[in-house]
Design brief:
Layout: H1 8-21, E1 24-26, E2 34-36, H2 38-45, H3 54-73, E3 79-86, E4 99-107, H4 112-125, H5 133-149, E5 155-159, H6 162-167, E6 171-175
Parallel strand pairs: 4-5
Antiparallel strand pairs: 1-2, 3-4, 3-6
Helix pairs in contact: 3-5, 4-5
Length: 181
């Protein structure tokens, strides 16, 4: 293979190995031609799981906590985050494919008018179409989830109610009810 600048013996060994593993097969064109096998196609099109460094994960977690505090302090959002719990092994010391985060929302202590105004603002900013009445009324919680996620591939966020969140094993990183942080 002059393109790879390999010796003929090394190239033959590699082709033999790939054929033995089932990734290539001899082509119908003739001797010395190879084609990718079905197993090779599956391997070539498989999605590899991305791993993140511990520093990256911790940085994303810190940014999540900052966004959670923003949700709680802002009048833009009608609900607040009462608890965030890391339900993956924590603290992260090595590379990982990401961390699972459980969180709980509750209504802010604001008037009905202020709540509806904030919810209306979030719905008005949404560019999509609400397919049904349920998605219309639950959109404020979805908007908060999108804001918390903010495009992070590291964080796997899941909303739980307070009773279910308490039952989950994990490490609490934000608890606004008892102010443990």
């Amino acid at each position: 293979m002059p393109l790879l600048k390999w010796k003929q013996k090394e190239t033959a060994q590699l082709l033999d190995y790939l054929e033995a593993q089932g990734y290539i097969e001899p082509s119908a064109i003739g001797q010395g031609y190879w084609q990718i096998s079905m197993r090779g196609r599956v391997l070539a099109h498989s999605v590899l799981v991305r791993e993140f460094k511990a520093d990256t994960i911790n940085r994303h977690l810190d940014a999540l906590l900052a966004r959670a505090r923003e949700v709680n302090e802002s009048t833009r959002f009608p609900d607040r985050i009462t608890c965030i719990k890391v339900i993956s092994p924590y603290p992260v010391a090595q590379r990982s494919t990401g961390i699972k985060i459980a969180y709980c929302l509750s209504r802010k202590d604001i008037t009905e008018e202020a709540y509806e105004s904030a919810a209306h603002e979030l719905r008005a900013a949404y560019k999509g179409n609400f397919g049904n009445i349920l998605s219309y009324y639950t959109y404020p919680a979805k908007a908060i989830a999108r804001f918390l996620q903010s495009g992070s591939k590291v964080l796997k966020l899941h909303e739980y109610n307070a009773q279910d969140l308490i039952q989950l094993q994990g490490h609490i990183v934000l608890d606004t009810l008892t102010l443990r942080q």
